[in-house]
Amino acid sequence: MSRRLIPSWPFIVLSAFTAILSWTFMVSPARAAGFDHLAELSSQGYQISAEARLLGSGDQSGEDLGSLNPELLLTPASVTKVYTAAASLDAWGPQYRFTTELKSAARPSANGVLDGDLILEGGGDPSLVSEDLWRMTQRLYQTGVRRVSGDLVVSQALFGPVTCVTTDRCAALERSDNAYSALLTSAGVNYGSWCIQVAPGAVGGPARVTSCNSHEPLFSIENHVTTTSGSSSTGFGAVRVAEDGDERLVLRGSISVSSLPQEVYRASADPALQTGKTLEAMLELAGIEVEGVVRVTSDAVPGNAARLAAVDGKPLQEILLRMLNYSNNYMADMLALDLAEAPQAQLEDAGAALEAFVSEIPGHGPVILESGSGLTTGNKTSAQGVNALNEYMFQRPDLFQLYAAGLQAPTNGPMRFIRRGSSVFQSHVMVKTGTLNQPVAVRAVTGYFRTDSHRWGVFTVLVNGTSSTPYISWSRVLDLVSLDLDRMIANH
Residue 165: how many CB atoms within 10 A of its CB? Predict the structure, then answer.
């Protein structure tokens, strides 16, 4: 993969030497100006890139408030998602919608028979959910189709299957105990994850397990969850296993008879096939019979296939709000893949599209982006670079409010772990965080702040562990950042 923004080798050597010098002197008062508390972590062996500055407005110029190795390239984890959000807004605008279509080369007969295959053409919609498939099914029903003599074909010709490049996603091909490692396809639904609901049964008996999206589960369930008395606690685990092309969910543990039903999400081993099975169940509910099988293809839809029904997804501004607020990896990487112009795009192509966008941002500097989510540890950027991105979006009056809407104020954001620090920090900043724990800890945070005089500022803090400092808690990082930002906010 070409890295258009990475400097030539002589510059790399010089940059490496500069970084070594920065490391040597990073705790000096001059270098840590404004980040005196955060600098404590440098002396303990953590790698840090931090910068905070006021933004220019009207006749007021910008002002540097603090920096600590601001040009040092570090792993940003999910802070990467602000790049994906900005690039998406720049490319399509906030009202853009992705379209998913049902097509066929056949035409419905007078008696409602579609004598051929019914094809779902995936449009790369990161937010496609069961409700969208149901609306599209109803629109197909309204055309008069009651029976499909051929197969139900799911086309992921736009991109998919996307080769896994991270440990969690590669492991999900065989087993998964989470939803964040969902695999990627342009024809995915429900964020690439299966959903089941676990509810208490009779005391001493098994729990009741049902599908979230159909009358019957769409894959095998091994239910080893027992229902216990009302005074008992609830605790169970769920692992999705794939063997010989079939998927099953193994549940073990217990649920109290007084517990409310609980939903469980696990990444699918084949999200395009998951879409096909989900759609097949909805067609059956609507009274449309499919005589053939469900199959997946990466081939292009035949040129003579016509649209029978379609559904437009949510506006981009709503997608970004969910993607940023909940740091959804599936949605972020899907958007980045949509940005890539290469046929059958892979994450490498998505990263190149993001880098091309960054190359137009004044003052950003070098960057490496291998994914749009930040799950890839090879992503590298600097505090100076992320702040340049945030300033660039601040200067876009047509996009800034929509970009900033995805950031959280700690006092009322959905992520409770960021509710740290003083009341000033809680209410005067808007943030996006990034977290990784393997192979070393990454704690990253970026966003905007408002000073006591109502001036806008940008800040970014990237903290990376090393082999000798493999872990650090979020509470520790946020408490130190809060102390430093409190002073900047109060003094300006």
Answer: 15
